[in-house]
Amino acid sequence: SRVLGKAERGEFGSNIWTVAGDKAEGGAALLASDGHLALEVPSLFWRVGIDTRVLGGGDTSQLGVTFAGLPMVGAGTNGDVAWSNTYLYSDITDYYREEITLDDAGRPKTSRFKGADKALKRVDEVYEVADIALLNSVGGKRTWPRWELFDGRRLVGVEGRVATDEEVAGTAKLPKGQAVVAMLGTFVVPQDLDKDGVITGISMDLTTLDVGDTAGAVWDFSHAKGIDSFHASQRKLVGWAQNMMVADKDGHILYSGYNATPCRNYLERTPDGHFAADADPRLLIDGTKYQGFEIPLKDGLVDETPGKTDPYRCVIPFDDWPVGRDPKDGFLVNANNDFGNTSLDGKLGDDPWYLGGPWVLGFRAKAIADRVAESVAQGKASVATMSAIQGTHHSMLGELLVPAMLAAIDKAKASQGATDADSKRLHALYLSEQATMDVVRDRLDAWGKAGFSAESGVETFYHQPTAQDRTDSVATMVFNAWATELLHGVYDDEGVPFDAMVALRGLANLLAGRGPDNPKKLASWHKDRQESVLFDITSTPEIERSDEVLLLALVEALTRLRAKPSAPGEGGFGTPDITAWRWGLRHMLHLDSILASFLQGVQGLSALTEMFSISTDIHPLAKGMDTDDPRKKLKHFPRPGDYGAVDAAHPHAIRKATFPDDGVRDFRFNHGPIMRMVVGLHPDGRVEGVTILPGGQSALTDSPHFADQVRLWLANKVEPMRFSVDDVVAGATGREVLVPAGR
Fold it and tell me: CB–CB of 293/312 below 8 Å?
């Protein structure tokens, strides 16, 4: 069975880390944060200061970032603590296979549970549809029912055929006993399509269906006095699913990802501790045997008492959640990686408490931890040095894959004179691109020795590359093109969809699992080939080995890189001159209007969305470019970094490496740091900090603040956070006086 709703997600996440006061310059506890989401215009987060102490006699004083309109800071500082979060990847949703009966009209009526038919509850939902001729939207009210099971689970899918537009609109008549029902936006006519005598359905249970006091918890975060009061506030969290970090003015630091999560003790396990096949929360649970869970609450807090007698109302105890508090090495890091060592054995479902996963590859976490540790050891941990770490674009993916790539070229070169079919094919591949493969081998080897820096190599108003940067940019381009083809070469013929995170983790295991005695204990390992059978390309009569697949991917990458570009900044470079293959000429940031995602596919509106986007029309890359300059026609911004870099810039070609192959090799990106922030809380009460947004502070295109911050963001530069009144006055650019109406 396929994992539902928990696999096709790419790598979305963020970075947070803290440094204890006794490990930092001047004794200031540090918190650094950069959240990774869609980079759209206007910015998702806004910089905000909220203060009722100076004027109003209240107890609120906060500075940071939040969503527009929220009356509290989502990530920032109140002077006593500084806090932020990353996505946890915990599992707070279960899906169930149901057996459904229909009423005389053809709508869901009952679900089967422990041999009995339980009536479904119908809930009518009314939608007000806007009348927008441009979008072919006809206004008016629409009523669509949804159904709940006896225990509150939501029916979200039912076996049947997809309804036609006419059937949905009611202009096409259905046979008696058939009806159109809405299932999470899909309109279905329920029926037993597979003729097995059962109409199956899918239901879901979600922790947020049990209403908690998440807003109250966030309010408490922003008014906490130290790490202990902050941690206690997390007992209110239901459906939050975030890794939280906090530092306080006394120099303490804390990590905790606690949010109310069901124990799931009622789900059957096998003797070795794994969930039974029909009771695995990562797959479809048998809804005819198991009911949904409930998160018990009391006075706004998660209540652990009912779980002592009722397994369906049990939550994982607060005290059992992984916590990091004032560690000996003086810092804590989370970048969506495994927070409790639950995956180190390669398994997620055999621990006493099932928390979720799979977690993001630890590329960003390791790169950050290495640099923070170095800074701490040198006594140089400060707001400035932590801010600099946020711009790190070391290629952890290159560090992982390049050794196997170079070894494949070496093996192919050394196969001259071999008589076996595998070696002959391998050497023939090498001979087909001998000169270029030798150059690629030398460049990637030198790239690794120089530190695997994923450089743009393109001169812009925000970056002036060195000669080494330009050299590294070519290696970065070749490597990423090769890695993309390798992913497709391994997975295209398997017939199973993968997202980048799953595919890359699998590829790393397959490469490391080569050799005698199945070193990685791969289920796909073949004793004669001494590697995974997944390397073989099933559409060919030969049995390809891993080294051959590696070189086939390189040949394909070189072909694509030489090809004529389809448009400025897209496709190949149109030249065999490898020195022209600069990473930044293909790896570019898109800052498109948020309208683009809503108006996608609507003809004639591209000009409208471009009006609200930030491109090189607003910020030209450089002055005085010649007409044949490859930068001249670029609409977007060349950037360093690749998949898994700290300064997140995951290229579409890898991040959205959906298989089977769709033929697209787009290395641009539009997800990354939607803010960068570092806060230092000094022992004397002084608050120091920096922040920046990838856009501006205004959504109005005629405002000077519509696109001003992006110039600094592109250069990995920041602006000061002004917490005290004196700091605000010193940095003020204007003043407004507001008076009550009528005075």
Answer: yes
